[in-house]
Amino acid sequence: IALTVFALAIIYVNIYRTMIRPLNKLTTIAGVMTSGQYDERAPTHSADEVGQLATAFNKMAIAIQQREVSLQAAREQAERANQVKSMFLASVSHELRTPLNAIINLTKFIGLGMYGTVNEEQKDILTKVEARSKHLLNLINDVLDISKIETGSLELFVEADQKIDEI
Predict the structure, then answer these.
(1) Are the CB atoms for 61 and 41 separated by under 8 Å?
(2) DSSP of the chain
(3) Is the dihedral of CA 107, 112, 116, 117 positive or negative?
(4) CA distance 87 to 95
């Protein structure tokens, strides 16, 4: 009986050293990697099935780490591109608003007869030009607002005196 217990103890120690401990270490490393730390690697001391599993695990960890680095670089590049796009939209919007405001004001002054007499047909055309120009200006302002929202620089406020149905 003592010899059997001794043999079982030796078998258990060998199984623990060759199977259980490496698999527990692999499980621990998998948990560390799940938390986002991809630098850990499983030790590969043998060429048996557990060693092959550790080798495959390490290859997978390297691939995941490389993809993580690639994704981070792509994300940073996309954020930079989005920032450049927002700056471009803001710049273009400002550059379009200035001449458009001049067109609206000049059209309004001509329609009011400040540069000479204007007949009814001309007034009608000038009113349409002014309305369409204001519509275009509103679209440009919307683009500018969107770029400000994306950059986080748009400040909203609500006046306390306004009624809800006026907003």
Answers:
(1) yes
(2) -HHHHHHHHHHHHHHIIIIIHHHHHHHHHHHHHHTT----------SSHHHHHHHHHHHHHHHHHHHHHHHHHHHHHHHHHHHHHHHHHHHHHHHHHHHHHHHHHHHHHHHTTTTS---HHHHHHHHHHHHHHHHHHHHHHHHHHHHHHHHT-------TTS-GGG-
(3) positive
(4) 12
CA angle 65, 59, 67 (to 5 degrees): 25
Backbone angles phi, psi at 22, to 5 degrees: -65, -35
pTM, two decimals, is 0.54
**pLDDT, tens digit, 9 for 90 and up, residues 16-53:** 887 788 888 888 888 888 887 878 787 777 778 878 88
> Is the dihedral angle over the CA atoms 95, 100, 106, 112 positive or is it negative?
negative
Q: What is the token pair recorded at 8?
A: 């079982």
Q: Reply yes or no on whether the pLDDT at 134 is more than 90.
A: yes
